[in-house]
Write a structure and sequence with these properties.
single chain, alpha+beta, three-stranded antiparallel sheet, 6 strands
Length: 141
Amino acid sequence: MPTSGLSPECKELGKWRPALFVKGDEIRERIAAAFGPLERRQDEDGVAKVYRTGSGTRVGIITPISDPFCGGCERLRLSADGRLKLCLFDREGIQVKKALRESMASDDAIAGLLRAALGEKEKWERGSLELLSSEMFKVGG
């Protein structure tokens, strides 16, 4: 995942670095070369494609770039700065901290905010990879 990591080669935080990208197929090939064939597990929920090695080790691979799963993603994330993110690539998010801290924020108002976020999530598209500038490590997974 393009996490705008903290290692020296990724020092330009928030910038998409295609030279550092490894596709999901290559990741699977490397694992299979080192540990033997991978068996795909179909009974796993979530965004990771889960495999088992011959020894029974469970391996989950998340491929938001080489094999996007936006249409099936049901996750929302609340960042430390109080923004509800529709996606790890969501730069803006929906400001919920203010609503949560207001003394007038009722349970119904907060529920309405969450319903609106879920409505936006259904239409969410991450856009072009070249325009991505997400510091996903600040959001959490």
